[in-house]
Structures are given as structure tokens and as C-alpha cells.
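Exercise 7b. C-alpha cells:
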């Protein structure tokens, strides 16, 4: 497998951006095993392969998506590649470097400009679970948020029943800040939500001290 530097060079994409953009990654974002890149029209079938599944939608607000809904989602995601103002988000396709297979998606939302707050999220094909891909991809977005955007705090949230997602947040060095018990109706039951977060100072602290 090519080095991360060579892989990034080969995948380098000059994406046209509006003049209002304040922050945008240099695409692709390449990690040890993964490449994070903008979505394209050719990704619809790969996205449908996991977003159509009941076990993927179980803890999402969405129901399993049709092929047409996935096509529309990909069209929307293809434009979510930069930050111009509060509320903007980037949603990136995650592909494995060794076989170029799209295995999921990660997102970073600019929640507050004045308070320097962000939120990350991730959705992966069940076949890709258990390999540390979600942690690896999310860590790359945390690095962009803290080291490029200058965020002070980044949080993530998940259903309290979603142990896999909670473990990802823990591996990222996040702390549990809240457990909202039965705070809303969700798909016919009372929802319980966990909030995890990491601060700028914690991100830059030596790994041994986290």
C-alpha cells in the first residue's frame, strides 16, 4: 500500500469553493488506513448498501433509506465540504485505502462560532465494524476541528443503547458529560441519549494523560 503522503497526492482534489468559505480541508484527508473525501454521484450504491439496512437505521432518526433517497442524500452531501458560517457541516465519504471501498461516512458540524463548539458524527457499514475505522476517521476530523478551525470543544452523542458508538467516543478520549433519561419519544419508545465531549486542552495534552 502506498504511503499516506503518496496516496494523498494521488487523490488530491481541487474542489471549487465559494469566496465565503472560512475553513475547508485539503482533500483527500488521508490516515493510516483510510481516505476521507467528498461524496460523488458514483457513491450511491455503496451508501445504499448500508443506509438501507434496519440495523444501521436502528439508532438514527432516519428510517432505512430507498435507493432514490440515498441518491438525494449523496447529492446533498457532495456539497457539504466546507465551513462558511455557524451551522455548516462537512460530511465525507470514508474509503479504505487498500481496496478503495466506501465503508461509511463521518461529519463535523460547526455548532457555535462565538463559543468555538463542534459536533462529530459517524455511520459505518456493519461489515466494517470492529476494526477501529470509525475511531480513525473521527480522529482525523477532530484534528481538523482543533488544529485548523481552533475549536474549543467538540462533542458527540448517541443512543444509550448503542454501545458500539459509545465505545468509539471513549476511544477518542472523550468524557461522558450527560445521560439524558427518557427525554423524548424515539421510534415508539423513550429515548435515552449520551453526550460525550473533548476539550481543546485535552486534545493537545500528551496521550498518556488523557
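Sequence design result:
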Amino acid at each position: 500500500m502506498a504511503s499516506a503522503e503518496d496516496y494523498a497526492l494521488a487523490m488530491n482534489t481541487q474542489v471549487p469553493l465559494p469566496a465565503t468559505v472560512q475553513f475547508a480541508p485539503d482533500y483527500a484527508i488521508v490516515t493510516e488506513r483510510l481516505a476521507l473525501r467528498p461524496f460523488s454521484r458514483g457513491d450511491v450504491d455503496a451508501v445504499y448498501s448500508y443506509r438501507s439496512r434496519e440495523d444501521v437505521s436502528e439508532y438514527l432518526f432516519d428510517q432505512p433509506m430507498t435507493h432514490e433517497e440515498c441518491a438525494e442524500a449523496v447529492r446533498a452531501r457532495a456539497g457539504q465540504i466546507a465551513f462558511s458560517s455557524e451551522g455548516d457541516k462537512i460530511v465525507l465519504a470514508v474509503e479504505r485505502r487498500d481496496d478503495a471501498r466506501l465503508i461509511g461516512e463521518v461529519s463535523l458540524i460547526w455548532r457555535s462560532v462565538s463559543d468555538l463548539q463542534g459536533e462529530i458524527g459517524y455511520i459505518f457499514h456493519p461489515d466494517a465494524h470492529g476494526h477501529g475505522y470509525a475511531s480513525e476517521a473521527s480522529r482525523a476530523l477532530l484534528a481538523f476541528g482543533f488544529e485548523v478551525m481552533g475549536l474549543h470543544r467538540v462533542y458527540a452523542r448517541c443512543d444509550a443503547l448503542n454501545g458500539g458508538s459509545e465505545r468509539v467516543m471513549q476511544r477518542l478520549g472523550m468524557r461522558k458529560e450527560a445521560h439524558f433519561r427518557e427525554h423524548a419519544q424515539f421510534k415508539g419508545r423513550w429515548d435515552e441519549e449520551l453526550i460525550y465531549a473533548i476539550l481543546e486542552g485535552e486534545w493537545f495534552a500528551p496521550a498518556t494523560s488523557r
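Instructor comment: The first strand starts at residue 29 and ends at 30. The chain is about 30% helix and 30% strand.
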